[in-house]
Structures are given as structure tokens and as C-alpha cells.
Design brief:
The protein is an alpha/beta fold and 373 residues long. The protein has 2 domains: 4-179, Rossmann fold, CATH 3.40.50.150; 184-364, Vaccinia Virus protein VP39 (Rossmann fold), CATH 3.40.50. Helices cover 24% and strands 29% of the residues. The protein has a 7-stranded mixed sheet with strand order 3-2-1-4-5-7-6, sandwiched between helices. A 7-stranded mixed sheet has the order 12-11-10-13-16-18-17. A two-stranded antiparallel ribbon has the order 8-9. Strand 6 and strand 7 form a beta hairpin. Helix 4 runs parallel beside helix 5. The protein is elongated. Bound molecules: S-adenosylmethionine. S-adenosylmethionine is lined by residues 68, 204-205, 210, 213, 232-235, 237-238, 254-257, 260, 281-283, 298, 300, 311.
């Protein structure tokens, strides 16, 4: 096993949630008197337990792109009777009537934020207000100009806790966001004739193949069969490559990011492939009792901007339970990540290959005692 402190997120790191929530929510809390609407939208809400208590007396929609945030907030809404409807989606059409107040949380990455502001602009009513909140370290300041462009006149509202809050007033009704306009596509040579990969803003390695994933794809086993799980599928590039090379496999893909799930669906569609399942999970436990012949992954080791081993440590611990008797785990990781030490002893692990930055690891439990591939 591994040092227990590695699974903990550093509570003093920027963005860590304290007793009163994440810093952006704390800034919203001290401005709550001006953030009152009759049909509120909380947009791109992070995994922060302080959000539902802060807005519980208002009615509207609480939209998260992160399934772990969504599960937490759906539970809090149910338990507290808050007037908010929790929604997990990347595709939110303008409701009728549109929202009079939108509170958007800054996301990670320029394109994800451009898309966030376009979405905010498309669902707010003319004369309605859009608040944008985020941390200085996440680069909120340049977004004042973008807010003006996408929504209308912007006012600086407040700054504290290393965060800024802007308020913009919507000048017009804007058309619905069409996600296909935000897609980027690229071709990957692996697979029968290669595959086309569709990505969206906010999806890992948007618009290009990650170098670690490329190394993994070059070292896929040739004899894959049965049930395959692509854990943390992102754009679906690994699962779609396997499905294209081994059409008889049942490939399931899971991720916690709403844009990733749409992208994975579109990657399969773009190549005329049909997945066994594509669905949201918060960690490997979300797959339930299902067992797989192969679990393949480029697993996450970040939450926000900091390194966080919570998801990957649970993934490595639980993999054994989700593999068939002769099942194989194949994963790629940055070379500095100590995954060999985190994989339970019940699953001997070997190095398949490595380059200057990445390593591909293979774990196999071999409960069947059959000869090893
Ligand atoms: C390093 S990326 C790999 C993406 C894709 N497989 C590739 O190789 O391009 C890790 C993925 O794990 C997903 N992820 C993060 N936390 C997760 C969680 N709790 N449960 C499931 N997936 C998660 C991220 O959204 C991201 O798509």
C-alpha cells in the first residue's frame, strides 16, 4: 500500500474547501443580498458542500458538469428541501422562461470558460444578470472583457479570498449553444484505419492526443476480448480504439465529466461504433458489481489545479474486485506517479514500457491459474 497522506487533498492548498466552503462560494456568500433571483441558475458548480445551504431559499436550477459535485448536491437538496433542481449535463438548452439571475463558476481552461459564458448568455433573459466568480490563480481577470462581449455591460462587484466577482447585465436574447460548434476533432492512427476523435471544451487533452494515452495505445494487447472498461474515458479515444480493433468486445466507458461523456458518445458515432455503455460515475465504485476482462485507463490525478490521488487510489484498490478471474488492468501514468506502490499485492504489476515521461503498467490477478499472456 502507499502512504496514507497521499490520498488526502492538501486542506491549505488554493481552492481547498474549508468549513464555509470553497473561496468562490465564500465570496458569493458575502454578496448574497445582491444575488437574488426569481428563477436562478447556478452554473458549473464545483464539488462544494457550501453551495446548497447558501442558495437553499431560492428556486431555480443547480447545474454541475462534475458528477461527484452533482451527487453531493442532489443529496443535500433532497435532505434540506432546498428549492433548487440539481442537473448534471453539458447540454442545457434555454428554458422558458429564461433565468433572471445566473451565477457562473469559473472553470479550468480558456475554451471551457468561453463555452461557459456562451451558455450563460444563451439562458439569461434580456435585462437579467450574470455573475462570474473565480479565483485569481485560475485566471479570472481577463474574463471581464469576455463577459461584456457575451452578456453585456460589466461591473466589478467584489474581491476577497483571492477571488473576484463580476456582474454583467444581459442586453439581448441570444441563441442556444450548439455543442457541435465547440467540438475539435483529430485523427488517431491506432485502430483499423485509425479513428476520428471528438473532444469538447473541458475534456482532457481537448483537440489533441495526450502523449501518455498515445504510448498506451501503442502497447494495447492484441488479444483483447470480452468486457472492457475504459475508466476516466475522456473523449473515449482508448475505448473507441479497442472497439474498432476488436468489434466483438463489449466496451463500457465511464467518466465524471459531463462534456467527456458527450465527447465519448460522439467519438463512437463518428467512427460508426456502438459502445456497450457510456455513463457517469464518481470513481470506480460507480460501476457496481460488474466485472471486466480488461480495465484500461489513463487515470486522473488532479482535482482543479492540485495533485489529488483520491480517485486513483480508490481505483487501484478496487480494480481487483472489478476484474474477472483472469482479468487485466492496463494503465498509463506519468513516470513520477507512485502507482506500483498503490496497487494491492493481490494484483502483481509489471512494467510494459516506458519513455522519458510516461510508463505503461499491467496488473493481473490470475485467480483462474491459466497460463499468462
Ligand atoms: C487523464 S484523463 C484521461 C482521459 C482519456 N482516457 C484519455 O486518455 O484521453 C482522466 C479522466 O478521468 C476523469 N475523472 C476524473 N475524476 C473522475 C472520477 N471521480 N470518476 C471517473 N472519472 C473521473 C476525468 O474527467 C478525465 O476525463
Amino acid at each position: 500500500m502507499f502512504d496514507s497522506d497521499m490520498s488526502m487533498k492538501d486542506a491549505t492548498a488554493p481552492g481547498a474547501a474549508g468549513a464555509t466552503g470553497l473561496p468562490p462560494t465564500q465570496l458569493l456568500a458575502r454578496n448574497i443580498d445582491r444575488i437574488q433571483g426569481t428563477h436562478l441558475l447556478l452554473l458549473g458548480v464545483p464539488n462544494d458542500p457550501a453551495v446548497v445551504p447558501l442558495f437553499r431559499s431560492q428556486s431555480g436550477v443547480l447545474l454541475s458538469f462534475d458528477y461527484s459535485a452533482h451527487l453531493l448536491q442532489a443529496r443535500q437538496v433532497r435532505d434540506s428541501g432546498a428549492g433548487l433542481t440539481p442537473v448534471f449535463t453539458a447540454d442545457y438548452p434555454p428554458p422558458a422562461p429564461r433565468h433572471d439571475v445566473v451565477v457562473a463558476y469559473l472553470q479550468k481552461g480558456k475554451e471551457a470558460n468561453d463555452c461557459l459564458l456562451a451558455l450563460a448568455g444563451s439562458v439569461v433573459s434580456p435585462g437579467g444578470r450574470v455573475f462570474l466568480v473565480g479565483e485569481n490563480s485560475a485566471g479570472i481577470k481577463p474574463y471581464a472583457a469576455k463577459l461584456e462581449e457575451r452578456i453585456g455591460p460589466v461591473e466589478f462587484a467584489d474581491a476577497a479570498r483571492h477571488c473576484v466577482l463580476y456582474e454583467a447585465r444581459a442586453t439581448e436574447t441570444r441563441a442556444a449553444v450548439r455543442l457541435e460548434e465547440w467540438e475539435k476533432r483529430f485523427h488517431v492512427a491506432a485502430g483499423i484505419g485509425g479513428i476520428d476523435v471528438v473532444t469538447l471544451p473541458g475534456v482532457f487533452s481537448h483537440g489533441r492526443l495526450d502523449e501518455g494515452t498515445a504510448l498506451l495505445l501503442r502497447h494495447l494487447p492484441t488479444d483483447i476480448q470480452g468486457a472492457v472498461l475504459d475508466f476516466g474515458c475522456g473523449s473515449g479515444v482508448i475505448g473507441a480504439t479497442i472497439q474498432s480493433l476488436h468489434p466483438d468486445c463489449q466496451v463500457s466507458l465511464v467518466d465524471s465529466n459531463a462534456f467527456a461523456l458527450v465527447a465519448a458518445q460522439r467519438t463512437f458515432g463518428a467512427n460508426g461504433l456502438t459502445p456497450h455503455a457510456i455513463r457517469p460515475v464518481d470513481g470506480i465504485d460507480g460501476v457496481g458489481d460488474q466485472k471486466f476482462d480488461l480495465i484500461v485507463s489513463n487515470p486522473p490525478f488532479h482535482q482543479g489545479i492540485g495533485t489529488d490521488y483520491t480517485v486513483v487510489s480508490r481505483f487501484l484498490e478496487s480494480c481487483v474486485q472489478h476484474l474477472t478471474d483472469d482479468g487485466v488492468l492496463l494503465m498509463v501514468a506519468n513516470r513520477f506517479l507512485p502507482y506500483e506502490r498503490m496497487i494491492p499485492k493481490a494484483m502483481p504489476v509489471s512494467l510494459v514500457t516506458e519513455d522519458a515521461k510516461f510508463k505503461v503498467l499491467k496488473g493481473r490477478i490470475n485467480r483462474s491459474g491459466r497460463a499468462r499472456r
